[in-house]
Amino acid sequence: MHAPARGGSMPCHACVRDEVSAVSESMSPAMSGAVQAAIAAHRDRPGALLPMLHDILAALGHVPRACVPALADALNLSRAEVLGVMSFYHDFREHPPGRHVVKLCRAEACKSMGADALAERTRARLGIDFGQTRADGAATLEPVYCLGNCACAPALTIDGRLHGRVTPTRLDALLDELDGDSR
Ligand code: FES
Q1: Ligand 1: residues within 6 Å at CB?
Q2: What is the pLDDT of residues 159-171, one digit of tens each?
């Protein structure tokens, strides 16, 4: 699986430079294990950074910023280059997600079928914006740019399960289920 791009341009050098200065050097044993395993599995293949990031995401559920120095060293890249790739792809979230992850498609086919209204409704229901996790840890809301389900737009996933032709009523029902699970 390839992480969908954020749908924007690569971050500017100044932004990345500021972020690099904030990179923490400390990793927990679990983080360190995941990072070393990813490096060992992919370091000799071309384009190794993306598969490494995917492995870390699979192991930890997020890609902590603290792993940037190790990845940069292993691949002979700058920290800015690693951070630039991480920030370009939505899936490489830096913080652990909530118990449920709602991904709403924001690309054109879904927008033309009412995705913007669904986005507003989802924000209001969850009480968070895109890229945020509720304070109670119940849910994370993320944008995605095409789920490959354009023929059944608008589309979303909840915990990886795809839903198409989502009406406001259907959205409410899905979020009600999610609320029930979160209690
Ligand atoms: S544009 Fe939403 S699934 Fe393709």
Answers
A1: 105, 107-110, 146-147, 149-150, 153, 155
A2: 999 999 999 999 9
Q: What is the pTM of this model?
A: 0.75
Could you give the C-alpha distances from 76 to 73, 81, 95, in angstroms and in order? Answer: 5, 10, 25
Alpha-carbon distances of 121 from 100, 117, 141, rounded to whole Å: 17, 6, 12
Q: How far is the CA of 88 from the centre of ligand 1 (A)?
A: 19
Tokens for 130, please give them: 């895109």
Q: Are strands 156-158 and 161-163 parallel, antiparallel or unpaired?
A: antiparallel
User: Across-strand partners of 161?
Assistant: 158
Give the SS3 label for residue 158.
Answer: strand
Structure tokens at 173: 């029902």
Number of H helices, E strands in the chain: 8, 5
pLDDT of amino acid 112: 97
